[in-house]
Input
Amino acid sequence: GLIISPPHEFTMAGEPRSVAELARFRMEVAAGMGASIFAAVFIVLLNKALFATYGFTFPVTLTGWHMVFTSATLWTACKLKVIEYKKMPLRANFYFSLLDSVTMGFQNLSLGNNSVSFYQMCKLLVAPCTVAIQRVFFGEKLPSPSVMLSLLVLLTGIGFATVTDVQLNPLGTFFGVMSTGMVCVVSILTNTMQKAHDVNSFQMLLNVAPMEGLMLLVLGPIWDQWVVGKNAYVDYEWTSEAFKAVLGTCALAVLVNGATFFLIGKTSPVSYQVMGHLKTVLVLGGGYMFFDSDASAASLFGVGLAFTGCILYAYLKDREMKRSLAAQQQSVGEK
Output
């Protein structure tokens, strides 16, 4: 099969069992979050330059190149003994890679066939949908009421900041619903498969990136031809600046992919979604503060509310880990 590990095992990967481990966990998550924010912001800027300035409108083909570049980088690291290769079952690798590749395609179709507001609304639904899927299909207990409240505060704030005029159309709605559900499942599998197959984030990425790269190298041009009406290999006129921008996005994609697998495996799918919303808050807030971006009162209120929700969620999850650690230590002491 694809994963499957006992439900009680996958709420938090590598949960700290001592004060030192808790401190290390905090530092690792902070470092992963910092790398993720840095890479995500700059890859968005470079991708925008590629699409708008250099006219490179082939997102799925580009994603395939990202995965191939990620594979080559990780294999080089493996040969240099920086990371250790650990083979995953071929069947699990294939199904996950196929699901993730199709998910990327649906995300691009959702973005292309919906208003920005509806696309953002679909992203907001990922966290609650992930909670529901984990509960119904994996038997995981629901978050505590206080954590649920922090998620509600966060998502309400993001909604105020990013969702304005929601426009619906049948095809766009279908793509939006499909991409939302598939992102939830991929996030959950990224977490559970690391534990089920006893691999760390980079070992899993080393397994799935080559297969995803091959799939997207084949599917990318077909998908882009269908959506854009052009093929990157035939119709695009290359310049040295565009080539450098593509190389830059490929290099940043290694960091984005590595940070994504690391953070989901280290924390949980829902916590990773919260970190993603924190990136949105920081980008929006930074734009309002430093670049004089147009901001309505609702947007400013939303950013502030969402940031409050992020801080509250982080505090509550940290408190839960402290309590769990104290209970473990008390149990050991009683024995």
